[in-house]
Amino acid sequence: MSKKILVVSTSLRANSNSDMLAEAFIEGARETGHEVEKVSLKDKTIGFCKGCLACQKTGSCVIRDDAGAIVEKMLHSDVLVFATPIYYYEMSGQMKTLLDRANPLYTADYAYRNVYLLAAAADEAEHAIDGAKKGLAGFIACFERVHLAGCVFAGGVDAPGTVKEHAALEKAREMGRQV
Fold first, then answer.
1. What is the mean predicted confidence (pLDDT) over 114-123?
2. Cα 68 to Cα 46: distance, rounded to the nearest angstrom
3. In this predicted model, what pLDDT tens digit does every residue of 59-99 receive, in sequence order?
4. The CATH number of the domain covering residues in 4-178
5. What are the domain boundaries of the chain?
6. DSSP strand E in 29-139: where?
7. Angle, to 10 degrees, between the axis of helix 130-140 and the axis of helix 93-101?
8. Residue 71 belongs to what H/E stretch?
9. Rounded Cα–Cα distance for residues 89 and 87 (Å)
10. Which residues have CB under 8 Å from 131's CB, separation 6+?
11. Which residues are within 8 A (CB) of 11 and not within 5 positions of it... i.e. 6 or more apart?
12. How confident is the model at residue 26 (pLDDT cuts 50, 70, 90)?
């Protein structure tokens, strides 16, 4: 059965390694007939959540920027995929800011059930992704019908494009096929 997949690429760097993981995932998902949309945060304006909780009553954020349209796409997607560089053993700040701004989804009838994480880091150690996984798990824990369905980590990649020779690229492609 074809699924509607939203891939959010959170890196702001051109030719980023995490974005290349996202592209590989997308290729795999499209090969098996899924509908995939990619949103890059590269040229988006996303302000910090004010914590006013107005979105809990109105279903939308009071801040008018690019986050609202992305959150709307998240609402209607069957699968969410987040691709992030690892900064200081955590997800990128722009990814965390978007997750905070996704607060209107908390009271909504969201479609997504599966969430995937794709991450790239200069550190080779497998534990380098642990902070990002924990942060994403905090978001997921607020949605009782949602779970972390898979992660792909590319360690030891720092300069733009160095993931091209990494085994994680094929793992991301295969994960996309398996959605």
1. 98
2. 9
3. 999 999 999 999 999 999 999 999 999 999 999 999 999 99
4. 3.40.50.360
5. 4-178
6. 35-40, 79-85, 114-121
7. 10
8. helix 67-75
9. 5
10. 86, 88, 89, 90, 91
11. 17, 18, 19, 41, 42, 83, 84, 85, 92
12. very high
